[in-house]
Amino acid sequence: MIPSDFDYSGLVRPIREDIIHIDIPIPHVLRNVNLYLFLGREPALIDAGPFHPFLAEVVEGALRYAGSSHLSYLYLTHSHIDHFGSADRIRRSTGAVVAAHRYEAPRIERVRSRLRREYRCYADLSAALGFPKEVSDSVFSIAHRWIELSEPCPLGLKLEGGERVPAGDRLLEVVHTPGHTAGHLCFYEPEEGILFSGDHLMRSITPNPELYCPPRQGRLTGLPQFISSLERLKDMRVETAYPGHGRPISNVRRRIDFNILHHRKRLEKTEEAVMEGWRTVWEVALRLFPQVRDKPPDVDHFLALKEALGHLLILEEGGRVRRREEDGVWRFEPATARPN
Length: 340
Ligand SMILES: [Zn+2]
Ligand SMILES: [Zn+2]
Hints:
Oligomer: single chain
CATH class of the domain at 8-111 and 151-260: Alpha Beta
Helix content: 25-40%
Order of helices and strands: EEEEHEHHEHHHEEEEEEEHEHHHEE
Strand content: 15-25%
Structural class: alpha/beta
Number of strands: 16
Largest sheet: 7 strands, mixed
Bound molecules: zinc ion
Mean pLDDT: 92
CATH superfamily of the domain at 8-111 and 151-260: Ribonuclease Z/Hydroxyacylglutathione hydrolase-like
């Protein structure tokens, strides 16, 4: 329980006269989740914050403090539980119509059955990726605890990208930026050139690409889509981007170029790892992220695996490495090597 005299003022800060930033602390290396509240004729909120009951109370308290007992819309950038966890509580207490990209609907509206299905699929894929069973079992038992804490939320509006939606007295353009998830959305306010960038563009970290399990349109990784979605933002006039975690980004173009370069360098390192003789996805993940080697298994191990897989599959598609299957395990080797 939160003490009744808890001071919410430290979590709430105006970024424009009619836009309020709500800063929700989370017990995770990302440290916080950002919510953005638009005041005016059609009060609206971007993202709902995390799923934990205690944190949901913080979100509600901060919204009350910011003066929002009624919301017309709650826009969700994507279907990760740190962004939509409190959505249903907010919907019930404010009457908001909850909106997200239609591709995100299964994870938001039927989160428990959907995540169970995805975790089963990941577990089945683990052997092919060379992910050790004891690590995979521990990681997915942590993930299953999240399922119990997640609350499904019905969507009142399913978006595609390209729409204009009301937020306070402003209109936001909906920009579909797939890659981190299939239906990730950014929201763009063209008058002032401000972009609410969710997890697609952040100030100090690059997001993890989606692992589509089962594959989506024949693809397992969202990494190529993620890079094209970054390229797309380059054509927009953005003065400031307000991300889903961390501080605002003022030099948006430079951050986009940095992220694209970062992935290019990681692609080179992945190719080097294969040249050096690291063969399975998990081996390459340990080569790219040696810091996870000595840590007790947690979600970072899975994130490392997804990153390595994404880069290996791009190299495979570009003909720079090739994959063969040996006893059910995928092994990557330089494209020039002769099979044994
Ligand atoms: Zn996310
Ligand atoms: Zn996030």
